[in-house]
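Retry 2 of 3 after timeout on previous attempt. Resubmitting structure tokens to design endpoint.
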């Protein structure tokens, strides 16, 4: 199977994406448990079994379609349940829980960078076959984790960045901000699909996510060279 094969092209994106989003969601649950809320653990959602977290559309259909269309690949899993009322400090606890997901993705990107440097840093020619498949997965794993982290830090609900904003706003404003979460999915569609179609220059991904993600990718790849 070659990189031009559609199955190959989909696999080298879908595999790292599923791992990245599962670890992202589990990180939320682990932080919540550490801060007093065992809801995710009680519902057996702290498992790294992807089938417990897969959202048919966000984890499979959308990423697969994007991969086959050679478009930027992103997706989501079923959110890990968190009950802020059970946290020891609900206000700041939710900020920590929100940041745990992107924090996990940044850590996974570092793991990918180290693996790339250690395994492939000394190679003079691009690897082929199984080695090429492994390298493609590692590179995409690094890219996806950085993109997911930056993307989720956008300060709008229902992203993790939106929860951070809610946590730092004065309580009256935070209550109003939280109400926006009910419009989260339509807001995502409008910002990510409708607005770029009507006004390409206003693309959230291109303007707000792309530049910091590209900068971080360069830093992580430079970090990989340390281990070459």
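Retry 2 succeeded. Sequence:
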């Amino acid at each position: 199977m070659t990189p031009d094969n559609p199955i190959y092209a989909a696999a080298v994106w879908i595999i790292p994406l599923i791992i990245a989003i599962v670890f992202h969601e589990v990180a939320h649950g682990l932080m919540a448990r550490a801060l007093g809320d065992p809801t995710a653990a009680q519902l057996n959602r702290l498992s790294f079994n992807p089938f417990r977290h897969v959202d048919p559309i966000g984890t499979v259909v959308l990423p697969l379609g994007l991969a086959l269309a050679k478009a930027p690949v992103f997706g989501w899993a079923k959110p890990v349940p968190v009950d802020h009322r059970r946290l020891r400090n609900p206000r700041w606890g939710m900020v920590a829980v929100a940041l745990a997901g992107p924090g996990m993705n940044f850590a996974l990107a570092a793991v990918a960078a180290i693996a790339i440097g250690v395994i492939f840093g000394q190679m003079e020619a691009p690897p082929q076959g199984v080695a090429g498949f492994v390298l493609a997965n590692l590179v995409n794993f690094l890219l996806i984790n950085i993109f997911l982290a930056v993307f989720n830090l956008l300060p709008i609900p229902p992203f993790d960045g939106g929860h951070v904003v809610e946590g730092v706003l004065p309580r009256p404003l935070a209550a109003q901000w939280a109400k926006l979460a009910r419009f989260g999915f339509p807001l995502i569609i409008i910002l990510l699909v409708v607005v770029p179609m009507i006004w390409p220059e206003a693309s959230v991904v291109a303007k707000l996510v792309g530049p910091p993600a590209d900068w971080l990718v360069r830093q992580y790849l430079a970090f990989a060279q340390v281990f070459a």
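Attempt log closed. The chain has a mean pLDDT of 86.
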